Amino acid sequence: MVKPFEKLKLHGFNNLTKSLSFSIYDICYAPTEQDRQEYISYIDEQYNADRLTDILSEVVDIIGANILNVARQDYDPQGASVTILVCEEPIDKPENAKNDNSEQPGPLPEAVVAHLDKSHICVHTYPEHHPHGGICTFRADIEVSTCGVISPLKALNYLIHSFESDIVTIDYRVRGFTRDVNGVKHYIDHPIHSIQNFMDANTKNAFQMVDVNVYQENLFHTKMMLKEFDLNNYLFGAGIDSLSSEEQKDISKKVKREMREIFYGRNLPDMN
Fold first, then answer.
1. What pLDDT is stored for residue 272 in this prediction?
2. Active-site annotation holds for 124
3. Residue 69: CB partners within 8 Å, gap ≥ 6?
4. How far is residue 9's CA from residue 101's CA, in Å, rounded to a whole number?
5. Among the options 28, 115, 120, 124, which is catalytic?
6. pLDDT tens by residue, 199-256
7. What residues contact 46, with CB distance under 8 A and at least 6 apart?
8. Which range has the worst mean pLDDT, 62-76, 133-147, 148-162, 209-223?
9. 166-199: per-residue pLDDT in tens?
10. How far is CA 67 from CA 63, 154, 187, in A?
11. Residue 262: its pLDDT value, please?
12. 119 is catalytic
């Protein structure tokens, strides 16, 4: 049993700003130019501004916040952005319930009871494809930023499980300071050693993970790459049965290289 984290007795409002941002990448292989254009059209339809607004609005509703304003935009030739400004709204919960900022996984989508204090949530999408190599990559950037006692990390599990992804990069930062009743400044109001500790076991088992943390600056970074590789899951416009063993080997090499380059954040040399 995890012992509840004792709440700070503050002089006034909690002035800490906590920002959770992450990028998810979904990768596939589309063999022809027509397939690649159809992939872009498919992604643009699946994640247009209306659909993203519905997704984020549901997130806001689940976490018990109140929407103040929605700004959304589709782009030509592809991509979309949605920003939702939200503020605190009371939600029904037991009188003895406390805000829990302990370092443990947040709830999954079917059981979310998290509450975000004054905040905003935004998402931007970036579908694109290699001009010649057949690789297509869809990226979605999501940010949840809060001011107050609640950490957006409690929404991490829900967001990860709401998007299919091959690569995920996550950043969490606490900025500013807040004063307690004795006038002492606090630069963070909850213990944290790793973003990974806010994920459920299934997620941690499914991904290879690396942390880069700067504790003295309250900066936390985790990057994730899916462990299991099944070529069937990465083909768009072609089935694996239509490919020769040599073609399957070549495509697998291209897709895995794309994943490693995104994971490590650098172009890797051609090993041929």
1. 57
2. yes
3. 84, 85
4. 15
5. 124
6. 989 999 999 999 999 999 999 999 999 999 999 999 998 788 889 999 999 999 999 9
7. none
8. 148-162
9. 999 999 999 988 888 888 888 888 889 999 998 9
10. 11, 19, 28
11. 95
12. yes
Among the listed residues 136, 147, 151, 190, the single catalytic one is: 147
Spatial distance between the Cα atoms of 176 and 217, rounded to a whole number of angstroms? 11
pTM of this structure: 0.80
Residue 24 is predicted with a pLDDT of 92
Question: What is the secondary structure of the chain as a DSSP string?
Answer: -PPPPPPP-BSSS---EEEEEEEEEEEEE--SHHHHHHHHHHHHHHT-HHHHHHHHHHHHHHHTEEEEEEEEEE-SSS-EEEEEEEEE------TT-----SSS----GGG------SEEEEEEEEEEE-TTT-EEEEEEEEEEEEESS--GGGGHHHHHHHS--SEEEEEEEEES-EEBTTS-EES-SS--S-GGGGS-HHHHHHEEEEEEEEGGGTEEEEEEEE----GGGGBSSS-GGGS-HHHHHHHHHHHHHHHHHHHHTSPPPP--
Catalytic pick from 119, 145, 151, 165? 119
In this prediction, residue 113 carries a pLDDT of 32
Measured between alpha carbons, how far is 23 from 253 in angstroms, rounded to an integer? 23
Q: What is the dihedral of CA 97, 103, 20, 71, to 10 degrees?
A: -20
In this predicted model, which residue has the larger pLDDT, 113 or 229?
229
**Cα angle: 206, vertex 211, 216; to 5 degrees:** 150
